[in-house]
Amino acid sequence: MSKKGKLIVVSGPSGVGKSSLIAKAMEKRNDFCFSVSVTTREARPGEKDGEDYFFISREQFARMVEAGELLEHASYVGNDYGTPRAYVEQKREDGFNVVLDIEVQGAGQVHEMMPEAVMIFVVPPSLEELEQRLTLRGTETPEKIRGRLQRAKEEYQQAVFYQYIIVNDDLAVAADEFSAIVTASHCLYEDRKNYLTESQERYES
Ligand code: 5GP
Hints:
The chain has eight helices and nine strands. With 205 residues, the protein is of the alpha/beta class. α1 (18-27) packs across α7 and α5 (127-137) runs antiparallel to α6.
């Protein structure tokens, strides 16, 4: 692959199924890479260090921020999260579309720095269903679930800078939409206008 990969930012309320959506879309394509974030949150049962997140201490997190090693970072319901910069840059140079699963504040930082990033907001069919999914997942206390629902409502208000919304009702449909958005992003006029001048030049030489 010779062309630089896209930066794909995926946000949406906790429990909406972003991880499953990204995993499903990645099954069918070999040009995606998932950026594993660092977090100060405790690992949930079944989560693997280095796969779901790099689980680090608050001190380590602060050091990474200080050293400029994070592309963006934000806190979310009492914990810190951030995207390691080096991995994202390297993989994009290698031609991969790098997918970030990040909340709205961090996504806003990316959008400011890199307006060409592809911004996707994933929502559940309803907030009632989201509450049910979070409760069924059983990984958070009722108080944490309330915090996450409150944050979801705030994110709906703040999510004005996204270009796309995917409603995650049927996972297969949502994954197809995700893949289509990424494919379309590679066909943008801005990215392809060189073909026009190059074709003309070749024809005339
Ligand atoms: P969870 O604790 O449920 O895994 O994630 C909580 C929220 O943090 C989710 O909305 C997720 O997208 C977001 N998140 C995960 N990694 C990062 C990151 O590196 N940066 C930011 N800003 N948010 C993240």
